[in-house]
Queue: 4 jobs
Job 1
Amino acid sequence: MDLTDSTEALKQFIQNGKGQVLGLSGRWGAGKTHLWLSVRKELRVEQAALYSSCFGLKSLDEIGRALLQDFASNASEYGEAGGKVIKQIGGKLTTALRKVPFIGEATDALLATGALAESLLTSMVVRDRIVVLDDLERRDAALSLETLFGHVDALKGRGCTVLLIYNEEELSANQGQEWRAVREKCLDVEINLRPTPVEACKLGLSTTCPDSAAIVTAAEAVGLTNIRILKRIERLTAAFRGAISDQYQPMPAYIVHSLVFLAVLHYENRFPDHQVEKFREEWAQVCADQLSNTPHSDAASLAKRCNATNDPVLLSLLSDFVQHHRLDTAVVVAHMRALDKWALNQSALTAAVHYVDLAIYDPDATDQTFLDMAGKWGATGWEGLAPQLASTIILDLERRGGQNLVLEMAMAWRKHWLQFSTEYVEQSILQGMAEPIAQAIREVNESRSPVRTVMDAINEIEVDPSSATNAGMLRVLQNISHGELRIVIENYKWNELKRFLTFYTEHLPKLEHKYDTHKLAWGHFEVAAEKIILENNKPRLSEILLRHVQMLCPDFDPMADQDESLLVEGTSSARRT
């Protein structure tokens, strides 16, 4: 039952279940005790209930003592009416003892001995009342279920309505046979509390929690109904918010979602230990290959469903925070800002592609349609678009009369390019580009000569081979023309030439079988080498290049190809004559 139905069922039982036993079961943190306390507040004074947690209790005497203590503490909360109840019970006990032969005159002395007074008071208090015994599965092993349920039968004989609260899964797992036997004999009614995530959040989160909406969303995604974990999550989000408040606001939803998932991963015992231990490694692979159809573990699938951050390093930092309360604020904020930038660029790219699609295919779009779209791009980070796409949009807006927008967008793009771009763009690509875009590229090109740019790319890939897949490195190796690459080769000193040739003949081929795009880089090199060999301005350089290219392409022979070309040309001339 969800919380609403369970509450109604419990109220009905208390109203009509005199002399019966109700079992209220549910997982730890489901809100069983909270449910009872909420119903208890609505009881009348004459319905005063007695409550005892069985956590760690070893005997029925300890349970009786706990019930008596609860009675005394809660009776005082009823004010004058509660005081009268205690006085009435105390008066009845004293009167009864004074009538017992040989005891009457010693009544006051006997009542002064705590154990006897306690025992007698308990027997009188625990009668015709609601008795609640909580945490049955957490009692001490010395107190058997058979003994405990024998006491429950005795309570029924005294006209008590008994409510037992327990985690049925734990009892079945650890005391299955004994539990099944007493459960069948003693329980008259059973409520299985299964609150919804929304109900659990309503119970577990404070009304002032600023992240409650994001927590509820994530809790629904992962099926989280443990109130204790939800309270912990609220404390975690509050601590995280306080740590970053000076550097980053507001709190992103993906951070809250990630904290909810990690709390489930580490505290709910939902996954096997080996999945928890390997999760970070698997999540890095999942984030690196978003399109993979490889089945994920339950933990990784839950992380995706919860919309946890797809930055594995950030998730690892958050995991340390959840488990050990360690937080490197500067590093975490840097990752959050990088994610913001990436999200902004993705949004801008989506908008730009949509613009181009409408310009090509939408017959109903007007000039104003595109001017309105461009007017909304101010905060999307569109200045991070690739030069060709930015130029296409600027030229189109110029044609549609959006000169003011063109000026604003061109200045923003230029500023971004000058600040962040480090790549060299081949001059031929600039032909036909919007002039503000082309001019910004020329300015960066002046500081990034082809000779230096290619060696920088080689340096980076040698240090970190995975950077060969980096878009910036690919553009360096692919976009440089064979003419510019020829200048590069002819200007290298011998030690630079050694590194250059080693990279192109040894490292680059190893990448080709994985990344076809590197074939284009090899093609530029082969053409540049061929031109140098044919002109033969530096015979020693021509010899070195021929030897290295033939290591991979044994049939490479520019001189023979030239002779064959001359022969074909001569034959054709003879035929014309």
Job 2
Amino acid sequence: MTDGGGTCGHSIRVVDDDAYRERDVPEGSLTDDGVWNCPHDAVPDGDRCIFHVPIDEKDAAAVRDAFASAIDGTGSDIASDDELARRRRTEFVDAEFGRLQFPAGSIVGDEGVGVPIYLSHATFAGDVRFEDATFARGAFFTGATFEGDANFSETTFRGDTRFNGVTFREDAAFDRTVFEEEVRSGGVTFEGEADFYRAAFAEDLNLKYAIFEGKATFWKATIPETVRFNGAEFRPLDGEFHELQELDLTNANFTDATLRDVNLEASELIQAKLFGADLRGVRLYGAVLTDSRVDDRTRFLGPPGAPPFSLGGLVRFWHKPRCVYDPRYDGDPVGDGTRAQRNRAKSTYRSIAEVASSASRPALQSLCFVNRQDIHRRTHRDELVRGLPRDQLEADGGEPADRTAAPTPGRSSASIRRGVRATARNALYRSVKLFQWLRAELSRWTLLYGESPWRIIATGLTIVAGFALLYPLGGLVPTTGPDVTYANIAENPRLFFDSAYFSTLTFTTLGMGDYQPIGIARVLMSVQTSLGAIVVAMLVFVFGRRAAR
């Protein structure tokens, strides 16, 4: 092999090919026309070197031996590291490999030379296996394509490692791999599974604009420095989740990332950048979101791919976006509607609300609160229907109420008494749950749990209209003119507006004194005055709460 330009006829016009950049070849290695020429000698009776001969025309074992010889500095006649770096940067540009395997424990590269292995834009047509190998000075796979499985399990990369623009057509295994220096993998595409289970990253991990089409596993990986997922895309999976749980993602950058079917449970996202991130459908139970930074484009709730959410009108009432744990989630919720699942949903809403509060996003904070109260309301309803849990009834030696409705022949008096006590306890329990459910329903319909002033206003208008219809039952006696009764309203419908006028004054506790209620109308006036004071107080409370946010 020669140093400056061998007899291999393979060349690339770098300036005309968008797939290549001048940084992929060393300075001064291009001709005046911007052409790079392969530095290797051609094979006997051929015009290409062994690395550029088509795959079907060469032996995979011979290519592997030639590759091992080329990356081994032993016997090299190149005088300096700079010259060796120049050679190695271009030796395997655009190379084609078949099946490439190194035995476990292999040392890839020369430990005595501070130069990484360059495999820029190489194509690996077969399976690649570097399991338990050591890349002595790192490796640059910029723009490479792995057509088969890529196995880097338990491999050690001692220098800078780059997978920028790499495409993995099949599964890529990096489980228990150790990266001793920075890893740059911007624009990498994983079409199969990407396994980084228990991988150790000593420095920064850069996965900007990465695409994960298959399942990505980072569970129990060690990332002490910053990880960047800017613009990354985790594609939807069929019945599975990308595993990013239990990770320390402090200061991680997810700006403009799209996360579909991602599990971030129990991960630490302290001070993480989530600007413009789409986390709809992400499992966030137990995740620490302290001081995470979000903006108006950050989306937490609702199913993936849902249209932008409108906070007004019936859309808000009937189609509120929810987290993936919520039993009423529009997609496929996580769990089976159990108490544990609902507790996870409430905890997730609370965490998101805290982030929304610190980021001055009151609408998101309000939505999380409403969704949490909806879960409480549905829980009260289900507990009302179910009654006292069986384990609590049996703890006192009793039986469920449906079993104690009638005495059973042969039962002892003590057993009957326990059954009666169980029935009484169950009735009391249901009474409490009925009260809690009715209270929650009333709060929901009248003021949306204290979040909607417009519902309070609508409730006030309903009260005014309702009492205006009721006052003619007893009658209203004006200072001048006919009494306001149903009989007189039938003859003169305009008198109903007098009833509405009196109802409005009574609701607002103004009372002009130009009408005198008689009979049951006096009772109605007392009730409406109390309701008016309560509704006005609630309205002031809700407006004050919104202003405080």
Job 3
Amino acid sequence: MDWMEYHIAEEFLIAAVCLVLGVKSLMTYRKCTGTACGADVAGRIYLMSMGFFLLAVNSALHSLIHEFGLSRNLLFHTLAGYTLGLLLLIFSISFRDPSGKKFLPVVLYTPLLVIFLPWIYHLLPPFTEFRPLLWVLITYLSGALSMLFVALFRNTGLRSYLFISGGFLLSAVSGIFLFFPSSIGSAPWAYGHLLRPLGFLILLFAVDEENLMSLTGSILYRALVAFSLLAAIPLIFFGIAIFYDELTPFGILERRFLIFTLILATLAAALIFGMGTVSRLLRPLLELRKGVDTLAKEGFEKELQIRTGDEIEELSVAFNKVVSELKESVRGQEKLSRLAAMGELSARLAHEIRNPLDAIAGATSYIGRNYKGRLISEFLKIIKEEVDRINIITTSLLNFAKPVSPLPVLSDVNKVVDETVDLIRQEFADNGVLLESELSRDLPLTLLDRNQIKQVLINLLLNALDVSERGQKVRIISEREDGAVVVSVRDFGPGIREEDLGNIFRPFFTTKIKGTGLGLSIAERIAGEHGGEIMVKSSEGDGSMFRLLLPIKR
């Protein structure tokens, strides 16, 4: 068997497989940029496609160099390019933010092109002497990729990542065989070059759109890569020294000096690289701690802005969400405290006002029975109307101060709406305003207090009537929406001013001349006691829509 012909065919096969993987990744990248998968995932897929393309190009060049009998020193370029392709695959998984790294493959690969200059590759030491060192690098990087894909499987549960890990593991094992100096066709050479294409064929069938779109950042991946590269530093220095010694043998003193220099260089590189790596890994954690300290000292106004693309960012997002919910909870507690104080004050005022009101009403009745006259009758009529109006206000105050708990029964919301419309339709007709109903007839029955919901709807409809002019119309609409029944009241009046929108549910806030400012507060409370809410959408000149959302309960 001609092993050189096999080697040429093997490299062409690997080039074809990597080209297919690169095209597959690039197509997924283009599809990903048009969807909601995010810039982070798209950037990772792009770097992975460029890594596969570099592997394809350099495998093809490797094959052509052997095919045309070119200088073996040109293989420095192909194995260095192959190493760079593996590094890009590692970067695609471990980078914190890959979205801005589109030109990184070009920046890294361009300097390698100088090896094709004859006066450069002739100056290089013989390729066969340094070939084992390059295979050590390739083995190490392939092993790191295998570990990364195992970590991806642990994080995502996608079994295809295990097959990809197996493909790179075979590539790493083949590199171990190829590390040993051996002639073409020898047992180690044959094992190494049989396992390499097998590993890439596994990759061909394992890499797909699903696992490409599932690429996400993780502090675990960065830690694996960082400490793998940190462990590689002494190996690289040691390997360079050993191979240099084979080319230019050292004397005793030179060897001692080399060992001393090697130890210092290894320690310095490990310290610098290690400190930089640890600081990069710890920085987001320190920012998170600073955010917690800020929360304790300054309150809820500041959000964490951590963009790491990994679990730390997810933790910061969850932290911001908890802070936001806590802020809303505190505001709710403050509102409840204010409402409780106002309720107590309202109840006292209502009782204090009702006592003299009863006396005034009794005196008015007595005067009406015992004294006659047109002027007296007119004044008594005015007194009675104002007493009735104050009674209405005090009743609202008592309802606000001492709310009645709802007594829910299984009810048809549309029937409640129809009954409310029947109660109030004549008042609309008297004011020349058309009241229209648009009810969805497929609403399910739900638990609610019919009288309290009627009270809410009457309040919303009367508010709509107050802002409507003669000839305008008001719509009441029922529909089902995301597990809730929604009743909307739409008017076409002047709308609510933007500066008033945040206050309309606040007790005693009103823009009406004769309003109490309690109607919407009571309506909001009733909605909340039913597990629902009232939402408003309004713009000046375009009317308003109040939406009562009631969760479907059975």
Job 4
Amino acid sequence: MKKPKNKSQIFMAVIVCNVLIIAGIIAGYINLRLVDQDLTKFLVKRVEIISINFKQAVDYYWESFDLFYFSGSPSFNFNEEPLYQLQESIVRRLISLATFLSDKDQMTFDQVKTSEKLLFAAEFDSYGKLVRHSGEISSSGKLFDMAAHERTVFTNILDHNKRAEEPSIVSIKNTNGNVIFICLDDMGINFWKLREIVSLSLDYVINTENFLYAEIYDADDTLLGNTGDGDIALPPVSERLLWQEIKTTENETVLAVTLPIEFRDGSAAKLTTIISSKDKDTIYNNIYKTILTAIILLVTMGIFSVIFVFVNQRKHLSNIRYMEKQLERSERLSTMGKLAAAVAHEIRNPLNAISMASQRIKSYGSEPLIRIMKDEISRLNQIVEDFLNLSRTEKVNFIKKDIRETLYEFYILAEDDAAQYNVKLELALPDDMLMVSFDPDRFRQVLFNLLRNAFEASKPGGIVSIKAEKMKNKAVIIEISDSGSGIAKENLPKLFKPDFTMKDKGIGLGLSIVYEIIRSHGGNINISSVEGHGTTVELVFPLYAD
């Protein structure tokens, strides 16, 4: 009976449990990723609503200003709130910029002129001499005369009555008597107007839930306005993604969303809004804890399942081993019972021959009768020996040895037996060592039985060969071939049965003993035969592994 592969079965049970656990973990991870993506999309949608509100506020202020600007009202009417707010805010910011430029170097003038989209910026001393400037100045004397007697002067700021070519100017006189001029053309005025409208419109964003910070840049990546807590490190405008998570200085994760904006005049901008992801993190963490708990329960159940399977498998295998031993014992007893009858029958024939021969010796004292008695006694001894060998369960004494040595030693001893049968015995061994773990005494018994069968099956002048070789699959094959009469095809499956024999004098124990010995060595035995052309017995032994 084939022994169950207990280790492989336990291993497969562990693999199945581990696969289920890994599948649960992967499913939980995918679920978390999907939840995270859905929550992020929800926050992005919220920011899109913020950007729509901001765009609507910009359109409202822009439309209000256009209605007033083209209505023909005076340029500075305190009763017209939209224009007044814009004009006052722009003038205040330009005055602050002019104050900032006092006593600054040429590089600062150039930088401010570019970043603030000025037509030019200039500084005159108290005598009207140009100290420094950035940009082209058309009439410096006229400018100085205009500001000589006033502390602060501004003209043409959002004045709808001014000619298109007239610039808008703001000038201040600083403490040392120098005069700072800032001049804007229509493009510059539109930029400052847009920036003020953006600043007013950003107030609508502040009241949004979870809002932290917002800023907007024009197509030239110039800041138009910002609001909120700006203590957050953002990447450059050109490198910003639709949405990205950013760490604050307090190590808090926030979500920055950058969306395109198009104004009424066709100019484009980018609005970056930062909102807190606390709500998202709270929901995510709750789901994470739920999934983690489920995974832990799954892993725990998996571990207990593996332990349960392992314990039950061991118990089951113990029962199987016990049943195997019982079945083997029953089979052996059954075989022994059958053989006992056969042995009794076989022993009776030699005993009758010996009895008859002994009586004839008394009467005639014939020498041939003594030889018959010896042969019959020898046959009796062989029958008993075979019977004992089959019933024996002695331990196999394995040793690591080059099996070629045992084959050669047995070949030397068997040559005399081959000569008695008038058969030629041949041996073919490879040059390389064939290291096998085997019991030499039991192996000799195998060789004895197989060669005896081969000698008996061969005709006088026949050839019996022993061949050994190493296979690529780490096995040693030993072939014993004869040139005898062969075995009928229908008899091949019966050869290893203890009660089957094709000899006139025999009980069929030889090949049964060979089979048991080869199986105890972890090997295989195969017999191939063509009737009338001889038989080949193939023994397969595993190579010794260090």
